Amino acid sequence: MAVFEKITIAKAINESLRTSMEADPKVLVMGEDVGKLGGVFRITDGLQKDFGEDRVIDTPLAESGIIGTAIGLALRGYRPVAEIQFDGFVFPAYDQIVTQLAKMHARALGKVKVPVVIRIPYAGGIGAVEHHSESPEALFAHVAGLKIVSPSNSSDAYWMLQQAIAGDDPVIFFEPKRRYHDKSRLDTESIPDPLHKARVAQAGTDLTLAAYGPMVKVCTDVAKVAAEEGKSVEVLDLRSISPIDFDTIQSSVEKTGRLVVVHEAPVFFGAGAEIAARITERCFYHLEAPVLRVGGFHAPYPPSRLEDEYLPGLDRVLDAVDRALAY
Questions:
Q1: Is 132 a catalytic residue?
Q2: N or C terminus of the chain with fewer C-beta within 10 Å?
Q3: Domain formed by 199-326, architecture
Q4: Please, are residues 116 and 74 in contact by the beta-carbon 8 Å criterion?
Q5: Catalytic residue among 132, 142, 181, 263
Q6: What local confidence, expressed as pLDDT, does residue 5 receive?
Q7: Which of 231, 238, 240 lies closest to 205 in space, CA to CA?
Q8: 302-315 pLDDT tens trace
């Protein structure tokens, strides 16, 4: 019998790590303060007590060293799950990720696998200080050899992390930190969707909203408001940023004729640009309006008192919906 319960995304990730560690003794958790403290967001709470310091490792404050060590462990047969404490702290490790982790499989002509998962709490909305609210997913999606995913609910957080850990490819697992305490239903015995498959979060006929991570909730809220105005909006949760499930987006756009892509990251050179270009190529004769994008501004993330103006919210997404439907 399936187990249904409403739990937070934070708890779902903790349970996912626990399940993976119980299933495979080669799974290790490592990062700054992940052990005794249980992580700054308490995502790894209790794991070191239950699995020991050899499997839940408090590292020095050195992101390049964390990822470099994780790569070495993977080459020795382990499955390390490395936590970067905040999104903006990943950049000291960018060289290790891009130059080593992403390239190792190809460099070894397929003979070497590096099953490293890098967990990164990302995006804004929590009133944090500088370098704690970045959305750098497009920087990594541009690099061949990396898989990039981001869950928006507890069920996906639970299943997608286990799928990432069990796979043989390096995965960057972006966790929407402002959604950590959102609760949703989790079935721990269901058959999960494929890791890189988009899902229809809400069906509609007039326009498609495509989003991932923290923006999925905003888009479902937009769809509810639009419905009150007599507009039927379909919401797609992309779930994966590299690869992107263009087939599901195409199928939706062929039905609705309109697409708005929403993400927290700046619109300029963001994931929405790639989606807009691909869907324009694939769906040119189905589109009733140009593909529109809503996202952050091309500016450094502002102080917390201004972040509500920076982040895409209900009104900005609704404005894009209205503009698309006006064509």
A1: yes
A2: N
A3: 3-Layer(aba) Sandwich (3.40)
A4: yes
A5: 132
A6: 85
A7: 231
A8: 999 999 999 999 99
